[in-house]
Design goal:
Length: about 240
């Protein structure tokens, strides 16, 4: 659902068709890379560049240079001049499914190799106030998904945020918000007089439609999977804000 939301925003609303994927060579990175690539194929787009990197390293130069054609020497007929060779950027955006801690290292290195003015896409692992704080100049306009983000337009979320910080001394994450939504949903369903067995509860869950929670509108498909379109955030200045 996160990846579907990113691709809908970038392809249908922003008109991007060519995508690059820079991913960590671990199970999470490979899983997201395959899902993203399948999603791009489904919308009729093209993945024009793909490269992995070792998540244990802090220097991503080799992977970045391979991504943009700077790793291997080019023939003199192509380079012509001895000046610094420019990267080959045949994509509109770069998808990087990794944690914000790693993004603050990767984004500046992309800029070092002249990969600029290319929006970066990420998953909910990017959501941290430290991202714009540590890499502000390099992640402007980046787009990533969020499971929970309190805004003035959603008083319920602000009240939950305040109460959670008062009780635990830190901001709530997606697990806290999802747990809160789950308990509220069960409380509402179990208060009905017709819920007496687990089978009754399962049927009631499948009929849920339009119930608004901290993490979005709650509904389930026939297989019991949650149907939610994740909120998308972007970086503007030093702040994370919901994408308009």
């Amino acid at each position: 659902q996160e990846i579907e939301g990113l691709l809908y925003e970038t392809s249908q609303k922003m008109g991007f068709k060519n995508f690059a994927i820079l991913y960590p060579d671990n199970s999470y990175g490979q899983f997201c890379m395959n899902l993203f690539w399948d999603g791009v194929d489904k919308i009729g787009g093209s993945v024009t560049a793909v490269e992995s990197y070792n998540p244990a390293l802090t220097d991503f130069a080799a992977s970045i240079k391979k991504l943009v054609g700077l790793y291997y020497p080019r023939p003199e007929s192509v380079t012509r001049k001895p000046e610094r060779v420019k990267p080959i950027i045949d994509f509109d955006v770069i998808f990087i499914p990794d944690s914000f801690e790693r993004i603050v290292m990767i984004a500046p290195q992309l800029a070092y190799y002249d990969v600029v003015d290319v929006p970066l896409l990420g998953t909910r692992l990017w959501q941290s106030p430290k991202l714009p704080e540590l890499a502000m100049d390099y992640v402007q306009g980046a787009i990533f998904s969020s499971g929970f983000f309190a805004t003035p337009e959603r008083p319920q979320g602000l009240a939950f945020l305040q109460q959670y910080e008062e009780n635990f001394g830190q901001e709530p994450g997606i697990l806290a918000a999802s747990g809160y939504d789950t308990m509220n949903l069960l409380k509402k369903l179990l208060s009905g007089e017709d819920i007496r067995t687990r089978a009754d509860l399962a049927k009631a869950l499948l009929k849920c439609e339009g119930l608004e929670g901290l993490t979005g509108t709650m509904a389930f498909d026939a297989e019991g999977e949650s149907l939610k379109r994740p909120l998308l955030l972007t970086i503007s200045g030093r702040k994370m804000i919901p994408l308009p």
